[in-house]
Structures are given as C-alpha cells and as structure tokens.
Amino acid sequence: MTYERILTALADPTRRAIFEDLRGAPLQVTRLANRHPISRPAVSQHLKVLELAGLVMAQAEGTARLYRADPKGLAPLRAYLDTVWGDVLDAFADEVTQQMEDQNTRNRDQNR
Predict the structure, then answer these.
(1) Which domain holds residue 9?
(2) Do the domain assignments include residue 41?
(3) DSSP code per residue over 31-67
(4) Counted domains in the chain
(5) Would you put residue 51 in left (φ > 0), alpha (ψ -120 to 50) or beta?
(6) Percent of the chain at pLDDT exceeding 90
C-alpha cells in the first residue's frame, strides 16, 4: 500500500470522520450511517475506499459486516512522514552548520 492512496482516502472529510469512528470501535454500515448525514450506500462507498487504502478491515458477523480500523493501515504514511521529517531535520542541520561557518569566516576577517 502506498502513502498516496492513504492520503487520498483521508482527504475527504466524511471518510476521515468514518475512519475516526472506526478507530473507537468496530461498527456496521447501518450504525455508521446513523452517525453521519449520508446514506448507507454512500457509507459503503466510503468504506470501500478506506478498505482499498488499507485503513479498515471488514469481518462477517452473521448477515452483516463489521468494519474496524486496521492497526497497520497507517504504517506506509507514517514511514513516508518519517523520511520527510528526516530530510527536513537534515536540511536544517546543514543550514545551521553553514551559518556557523559563515559567521566564523566573518569573525576571522574582522580580526585581521
């Protein structure tokens, strides 16, 4: 699963709200539809996108399906953000080092 698919799935406010609901407890489509101002078919479509993104899992429970957040679902996004954050910190460290070197050069030139 790629982080792009996760970002796309969570970009929609309704899908994000459904995902947040499922983080709290597993729920059926009917219960999710009761929590949001959308129809059951619309909830099902949102769940399909979340499932394809690896964010939720479905489990048969009798004649209904129970949806829950997949604890591993955010791992690709987390890994991507870790690399971005690492790059940002590396760039910051390089900039600080460069500024310190520039300051040392100016101080040496002034002391001559």
Answers:
(1) 3-69
(2) yes
(3) HHHHHSSS-HHHHHHHHHHHHHTTSEEEEEETTEEEE
(4) 1
(5) alpha
(6) 64
Domain membership flag for residue 104: no
Is 95 domain-assigned? no
Using CA atoms, how far apart are residues 80 and 87, in angstroms rounded to an integer?
Answer: 11
- Please check whether residue 87 lies inside any domain of the structure: no
Q: What is the pLDDT of residues 30-74, one digit of tens each?
A: 999 999 999 999 999 999 999 999 999 999 988 889 999 998 999
11: CATH: 1.10.10.10
